[in-house]
Amino acid sequence: MIDPEVAAKSIYSSCKIYAEQGDAESQHYLAECYYDGNGATQDREKAVYWFRKSAEQGHLPAQHSLGDCFLHGIGINKDVEQALLWFRKAANENYEPAQISLGECYLYYKVYDQAVYWFRIAAENGSSIAKVLLNHCYKFGLGVQQDKEQSEQLFQQAFNHDEN
Fold this sequence. Notes:
Layout: H1 4-20, H2 24-36, H3 44-55, H4 60-72, H5 80-91, H6 96-108, H7 112-124, H8 128-140, H9 148-159
Helix pairs in contact: 1-2, 2-3, 3-4, 4-5, 5-6, 6-7, 7-8, 8-9
């Protein structure tokens, strides 16, 4: 059986080589290694550095991860505008996790029409999480006219895998 720690260090070493050569996916995985401390010493600032390198090349998961770092001030100073910028870049490319994160930010900051917009896009693409969040908006009339029937329908769709 392979030792998980040895495997993590091997993955880290491979990712580092390709990341330094400019491979966006390897840069993202290297950032994850630094972020989680898998195969490398945990270093959130290095994680942000590599997330940014990958994100700047258009790697959608890296754009989302960089947005999360900005949103929560992890490895970098908290900057909500930068978080929204990076979430929006990935969301505009139809990356569901970024659409949901963007909607959640707008919901938190009470920009309800934008929250509904992003939740609806993700829900239309089949996201159960987005359907539950959109359900919440309809239930309480946040960004849409309150509609308990629509709220219940979305909630049921979120948990009925045949309709997703």
